[in-house]
Amino acid sequence: MKIAFSGLGVMGAPMAGHLVKAGHEVTGHNRSPEKARAWASANESRAVGSLADVSGEIEALILCVGNDADVREVVEAALPGMRVGAVIIDHTTTSAKVAREMADLAAARNVAFLDAPVSGGQAGAEAGQLSIMIGGEAEALAKVEPVLAAYAKAIRHMGPAGSGQLTKMANQIAIAGVVQGLAEAVHFAQSAGLDTDAVYEAISKGAAQSWQMDNRWKTAAAGQFDFGFAVDWMRKDLGLVLEEARDNGSHLALTALVDQFYSEVQAMGGSRWDTSSLAARLQSRARKSGDA
Fold first, then answer.
1. Last residue of a domain, one of 160, 177, 192
2. Are residues 102 and 238 in the same domain?
3. If you placed Cys at 106, which of 4, 90, 113, 118 could pair as Cys (CB 3.0 to 4.6 Å)?
4. 14: pLDDT strictly greater than 80
5. 26 and 104 share a domain?
6. 83 and 33: one domain?
């Protein structure tokens, strides 16, 4: 397929690279042109400064950008010149509202729009092992599913426009609770004077086991938080979750509390720490209690 990929950051760059390896003709685009040029050079592809230059050629436009405003900007720039029957695939985590808005905008020009947020983080993008949850027309998904398979281990159609984003919100709600529980378990083990490695070995093969425990227990216990999904990004996502919850009447007391805890991590200077840095908040509070 002829594809344009907009948003060549830590997630988008490896995803676009997998498309090239799968044999697709990929044009790179990024708000910072130097990133697009660097990606194009590394992947023997081309880069453009404006999607309007290539929108008439492409069969699919894939986005992995920052937020609702970025999605609107990219889609509104590319859509007027896109061919009938083309598909826009948005991997950005956004509001369900903007997903529905973009789907309507695209449909008016006989272009399909799929909201397709991903889970698996940078490691999943690099390994081509992302999980993708998709809202939009099943017919459009069938057309591009072989493309998505280049970097996905699981692809699930969730329903009409916005359904992919709502599913991603459920994902972030679950992660927030698990990471807070993990932080408290590490903190408790340390406060009790236990060997945290031994605790992990004892509890990670039973009901407490989770991806977060397997991948973040030891680093959280060591106070290492300089990798993974950043606190700033998680707060952006939880903000979308809480806004949607106000609209649909769901009660998310724990999610709201964890969002507050992440604001405290930001105040500690941890905006770019990974999400397991909730443990740093507890470690800081313990030190302050000891000094009192």
1. 160
2. no
3. 113
4. yes
5. yes
6. yes
* CATH code of the domain in which 176 resides: 1.10.1040.10
Q: For residue 90, what are the domain limits?
A: 2-160
pLDDT tens across 46-105, in order?
Answer: 999 999 999 999 999 999 999 999 999 999 999 999 999 999 999 999 999 999 999 999
Q: What is the pLDDT of residues 160-203, one digit of tens each?
A: 999 999 999 999 999 999 999 999 999 999 999 999 999 999 99
One-character DSSP codes across the chain: -EEEEE--STTHHHHHHHHHHTT-EEEEE-SSHHHHHHHHHHTT-EE-S-GGGTTTT-SEEEE--SSHHHHHHHHHHHGGGPPTT-EEEE-S---HHHHHHHHHHHHTTT-EEEE--EESHHHHHHHT-EEEEEES-HHHHHHHHHHHTTSEEEEEEEESTTHHHHHHHHHHHHHHHHHHHHHHHHHHHHHTT--HHHHHHHHTTTTT--HHHHHHHHHHHTT---SSSBHHHHHHHHHHHHHHHHHHT---HHHHHHHHHHHHHHHTT-TTSBGGGHHHHHHHHHHHHHH-
The pTM (predicted TM-score) of the whole model is 0.94
Q: Catalytic site residues?
A: 168
One domain for residues 132 and 208: no
The residue among 143, 160, 177 that closes a domain is: 160
pLDDT at position 43: 98
Query: Residues 25, 143: one domain?
Result: yes
pLDDT digits (tens, 9 = 90+) for 112-145: 999 999 999 999 999 999 999 999 999 999 999 9
pLDDT band at 292 (very low <50, low <70, confident <90, very high): low
User: Do residues 71 and 175 share a domain?
Assistant: no
Q: How many domains does the chain have?
A: 2
